[in-house]
């Protein structure tokens, strides 16, 4: 496992880049005072996108990747793309989405694609089987990884997700809901 270049790129380049882009995007939302413009609706869209990429990510981290997991990744990617289009369409209707934030959005769209393609390259037989090609039979059963990722890596990446993604975007929603409550009470 430690010598597979695709896995190493996924673990130590793609994941940190993805997390950094997500956190930087949150900083942009904070700087543009999302709570005063698009508010809780846009923040909920952000949390929806978190779930859309989080479910396949957790599956790849912990489960044996097969045709079922690859299907989940592919479907979630396209759903995430549609949600991202909805998000940006809504955001630009009420707040400034500057060049830096737009550039970060391109990362937040393409890094999951990059990750998915690297995972597919590592499980090419199951990818082909998904479409009825190749020598393997498509597998859809959920099973824990036969060769788990290092426990230290998993703990670190889950902590980073919690600290740099889930906590900031939850804080964003809280800030938006608090602002809406203050507006309703006249504060």
Structure commentary:
It contains six helices and no strands. The chain has 187 residues and is mainly α. It has one domain (5-181). The longest helix has 35 residues, at 151-185. The mean pLDDT is 95. Keywords: Membrane, Transmembrane, Transmembrane helix. The chain crosses the membrane at residues 6-24, 113-131, 151-170. This is Diguanylate cyclase.
Percent strand: under 5%
* Element pattern in H and E: HHHHHH
Biggest sheet layout: none
Task: Label the overall shape.
Answer: elongated
* Distance separating the two termini: 57 Å
Low-confidence stretches: none
How many helical elements?
6
Transmembrane segments: 6-24, 113-131, 151-170
Protein name: Diguanylate cyclase
Keywords: Membrane, Transmembrane, Transmembrane helix
Organism: Dyella jejuensis
Keywords:
mainly alpha; Diguanylate cyclase; 187 residues; single chain; transmembrane helix; transmembrane; membrane
What is the secondary structure topology, with strand pairs?
Blueprint: H1 5-31, H2 39-62, H3 67-92, H4 99-122, H5 124-130, H6 151-185
Helix pairs in contact: 1-4, 1-6, 2-3, 2-6, 3-4, 3-5
């Amino acid at each position: 496992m430690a010598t597979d270049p695709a896995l190493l790129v996924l673990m130590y380049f793609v994941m940190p880049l993805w997390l950094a882009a997500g956190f930087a995007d949150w900083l942009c939302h904070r700087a543009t005072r999302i709570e005063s413009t698009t508010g809780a609706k846009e923040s909920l869209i952000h949390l929806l996108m978190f779930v859309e990429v989080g479910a396949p990510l957790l599956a790849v981290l912990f489960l044996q990747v097969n045709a079922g997991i690859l299907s989940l990744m592919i479907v979630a990617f396209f759903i995430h793309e549609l949600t991202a289009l909805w998000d940006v369409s809504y955001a630009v209707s009420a707040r400034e989405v500057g060049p830096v934030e737009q550039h970060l959005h391109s990362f937040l769209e393409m890094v999951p694609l990059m990750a998915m393609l690297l995972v597919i390259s590592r499980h090419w037989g199951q990818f082909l089987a998904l479409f009825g090609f190749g020598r393997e039979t498509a597998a859809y059963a959920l099973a824990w990884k036969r060769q788990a990722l290092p426990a230290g890596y998993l703990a670190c990446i889950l902590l980073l997700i919690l600290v740099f993604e889930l906590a900031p975007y939850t804080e964003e929603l809280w800030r938006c809901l608090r602002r809406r409550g203050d507006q309703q009470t006249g504060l």
